Amino acid sequence: MTESLHVVCPHCHTTNRVRADQLGSAPTCGQCKQPLFTGHPLALGDEAAFDKHVQRSQIPVLVDFWAPWCGPCRMMAPAYEQAAAELEPRLRVAKVDTEAVPALAGRYQIRSIPTLALFVGGREVARQPGALTSAAQIAQWARMHLPR
Ligand code: ZN
Predict the structure, then answer these.
(1) What is the DSSP track for 62-111?
(2) Domains along the chain?
(3) What would the pLDDT profile of 82-141 be if each residue is shown by its tens digit?
(4) pTM of this prediction?
(5) How far is the CA of 62 from the centre of ligand 1 (A)?
(6) 9 catalytic, yes or no?
(7) Is 70 an active-site residue?
(8) Measured in angstroms, how far is the CA atom of residue 110 from the centroid of ligand 1?
């Protein structure tokens, strides 16, 4: 029996059911027909989008809480891009602009940025305040905290 997983579309935020063994085969959204994985961090621009991905996704969601004025955040951005390409489709790689969505920064009590947080089944399982500056570091940190 092949397990299937709920994967939330990064374009239209519809929840799709994808067979686990198809995750790596460039699955597309049943609703909008666009790829479910883009290899780029997904900007979650409001609480509704964040909640859909974090609560409904059955793959872990890695979130970078950042802000446009933050130098270390900008320094980490290229590494984070690269990490997204490396980690998908095992994870959903996302980012939240804490200036644009302060409610999320408040809800998760983000005290320093950048902060990386890993969500599994809607729950935060790990947090890393401060920049990780290489894709390898980011990927390693995320993998270390994945459920087995
Ligand atoms: Zn879609």
Answers:
(1) EEEEE-TT-HHHHHHHHHHHHHHHHHTTTSEEEEEETTT-HHHHHHTT--
(2) 38-145 (3.40.30.10)
(3) 999 999 999 999 999 999 999 999 999 999 999 999 999 999 999 999 999 899 999 999
(4) 0.96
(5) 20
(6) no
(7) yes
(8) 29
